[in-house]
Amino acid sequence: MGLKTNEEKDVLVEPEDDVFYYGKCVWSCRGQRISLIPILTIIAIVILSVSFFLYTVVFLDELLSKPFNSACEISTQPQCDNIPESQRFDCFPETYLVTKEKCEARGCCWWPFLSRPEMLGKVPWCFYSRDYQGYIVDSLNQTATGMTAMLSRSTKSSWPNDIMTLQLDVNFESNERLHFKIYDPHNSRYEVPLKLFPASEPVGAPDYDVSIAKQGPFSITVTRKSTGQKLFETAGTSPLIFADQFIQISTVLSSPFVYGLGEHRGSFLIDTNWTKLVLWNVDHPPERNVNLYGFHPFYLNVEGDGKAHGVFLLNSNAMAVEVQPFPALTYRTTGGILDFYVFMGPSSDNVIQQYTGLIGRSFMPPFWALGFHLCRWGYQSSERTKEIIDRNRAANMPYDTQWNDIDYMDRHLDWTYDHDHYSSLMEVVQDLHNHGQHYVMIVDPGISIEQTPGSYQPYDEGIRDNVFVKDYNGSLIVGVVWPGKTVFPDWTHPNVSDYWFRQASRFRQQIPYDGLWIDMNEPSNFVDGSTIGCIGNDLDDPPFVPVGIVGGKLTAKTLCPSAKQYLSYHYNLHAMYGYGEMVASMSALKKILQKRSIVISRSTFPGSGVHGGHWTGDNKATWDDLMYSVSGIMNFQLFGIPLVGADICGFSGDTTPELCARWMQLGAFYPFMRNHNDLTAKDQDPAAFDSKTQDIIREALNLRYTLLPFLYYLFFRSHVDGSPVVRPVFFQYPVSDYNATLTVDIQFMWGSCLLITPAISQDETVGLGYLPKDTWYDFFTHEQNQSSGQWINFDTPAERINLKVRGGSIFPVMEPNVTTTLMRKNPLFGLFVALATDGTASGELYWDDGDQLDAYESGMYNHVSFSVQKNTLQSIVVKSGYISPEGMPLNRVTVLGVSSAPQSVVINKKKANYRYDLGSQTIYIDGGKMSLLSPITIGW
């Protein structure tokens, strides 16, 4: 009559006398009898699990309304037997509320019993049988660049409007990049209008094989030639389903070590124990298990031998991604096509380089953008803004950029400022510029419609240029945001770039800002859909909506999916709305400023890093938010958006001196460093605290500014070859005992040189972390540690963050100052050299004027490499294309790991001043202000 579960071994065994086992409780169906023990067990679980309360109530209601013997019914088809829980692929993904009748009406298996109670609500009760009828391959042909196949199905799925004939195109784009897509060959469907970049090298000897099943259900398998590891394999998973508004495909993962798939809050390593991730941009404060601001259907999978590959699904429709412990991953999307790219690595760095080679390398930020930024919502006046600026100057805080939130606007109207409360804003900005500082303000996409006709140019010109999103019937779609009723620019319209440029240019004539902060661009809407609701067609209310989506519907807190944009319906383009604003904003800034600037956006999509950066949204002033910021920063490195940071000290709620000090220490290592909070919270700018806390924060800021030349070099590398700025530990150490590095998500690295271990809890002075197998030095004390690769207690004193330097590293530093402008006016470069056990080290320096557009592309930069061998440091000037007015003088060289005192130190054959510290085995060498633009040889 069925199967039972052996609780101890978690395997399926043969039944005994028509008795089912749920744990150790017997459920007997014979004679229409049923034991109360499992019922009471289930009820107890329900009471303890509020998240599944509704599901259980509805299910039990339906269950108990029938004769008792029906409660024991399961699917008895042979093709349902012996399917382990880990390999059940959900046949009813649109709801938790499913019954046996509904399940089997889809031709699927019904098994409402689980090996462990904690799996309730995770393991599907309704799942696909092994012989579920799907697509088969009708023909398969080789092409000059790959292969093509025609697929068909003879029976319809349970989803409306199946596409019965499909085409598969496989294209070998390079040795490291494979492209395949599945689409309707007879009817045009929406495809993502994203600019992609061709492979840089032709196909020679690719390290992949692609095979298509010629018999039985359709499947595609991508294998790494060199190891035989399967990287993408649909065989043995859920069937391919391709209906008009529901597309599903699954793949077996090479290992449970999978990362990416954002934007979401959680650990960096995605839990393969039935994790459901929703991708649909929404204005919602960061929390676990819901969709957030960004849309990134890309994942990195580390294989058993430490090699890695990446998979990108180019699709912008609402999407659910489910990861299960097979391990396997299932995509379910509401439209478009299946357009996949597989990146072969083999290192994790290589994967990200290859991914950004497709979607575009990150922009090169101006040097000032890497300094400290300060903001809050609720200064309420230009005088108060100036007061905050002045007190942080008086406190001698390194500080480059002041920001204003929406309270600077006149009635929250874009491209205006409040002449009553911010009457002296122009003078404030000019004062910032006079001190070598910069100014950035917020702009939202919602354009007010409530102003007198002819009085508000952003609206009047938008109507004239026809650039606003329309509703289904062709009228303007109206939502509600901060200024009241608003309309929304359509970033796909050919007139919108020029329209946005004019607004930005006109406002800069009033307030000479230096960058743009674009918010509320999911787009956010204070009413669902529009002020009059939505038409309610199959775009607004599709047959499939991912379970767990904020608000339970696509219209929640945003525009109607049925709204019309120039290129397609908002249903298709919603995820790209913020991306479109980033493109228009950066384009406008380049035209206006004629130099580098920044755009910081809340909503992002693949390719956003080409045009700007991101902050992780409206977090809270809690230790958990500090901790989760680390995985958030690392995720956006995978997504090709390296200029990223969290609101330091927390956006909402009151911070504490300890929390803020610790967060400033961590934030000093965010690629984008900004302290920002809301209008109801206490002040949290550095100078708002007591003198002891100020000292700690000042030291953290001075440390960041000391390291800015190294950070700038890392951004150069990201811009040129796509390497992440912040690197997860396993990027440098992919293989470790018990896969330890693959689980680290509190620690991270800057490039290959620095290991950062922050304090993440209150009163913490020692924190557990992993020290990979290598030679390490404490940045502050220079103490050396030869690690065999182990978890250790890291010292985290209140005064500073734990910062380790990898042996074998050379990186540039500079004497800090209160602004990057002052640092550059009197640049005093240093080299920090940490020797490996064999006495070698290497590193590089990149330098330009910090502002010029396309400095690298035009050759207006300097690039110097350094190496140490046999007690000699040598530099090579790789490129000398920027003549710095201040020069590039070498002020000091610090060499760690020198076991004995040198008899002398010589720079370019001349004796140099130096000091040797036996305790730390460090040489401190006076660089003599020698120019880094000439070859240098230093021996000791």
Automatic annotation (TrEMBL):
Top-rank lineage group of the source organism: Eukaryota
Pfam families listed in its UniProt record: Gal_mutarotas_2, Glyco_hydro_31_2nd, Glyco_hydro_31_3rd, Trefoil
GO MF, any single term: alpha-1,4-glucosidase activity
Annotated compartments: Membrane
Primary location class: membrane
GO cellular component: membrane
Transmembrane segments: 36-60
GO terms of biological process kind: carbohydrate metabolic process
Domain P-type, first and last residues per copy: 78-130
Matches recorded under InterPro entries: Gal_mutarotase_sf_dom (IPR011013), GH (IPR017853), Glyco_hydro_31_AS (IPR030458), Glyco_hydro_31_C (IPR048395), Glyco_hydro_31_CS (IPR030459), Glyco_hydro_31_N_dom (IPR025887), Glyco_hydro_31_TIM (IPR000322), Glyco_hydro_b (IPR013780)
UniProt keyword annotations, A-Z: Disulfide bond, Glycoprotein, Glycosidase, Hydrolase, Membrane, Transmembrane, Transmembrane helix
Family: Belongs to the glycosyl hydrolase 31 family.
Protein name as it appears in the record: P-type domain-containing protein
Provenance organism: Potamilus streckersoni
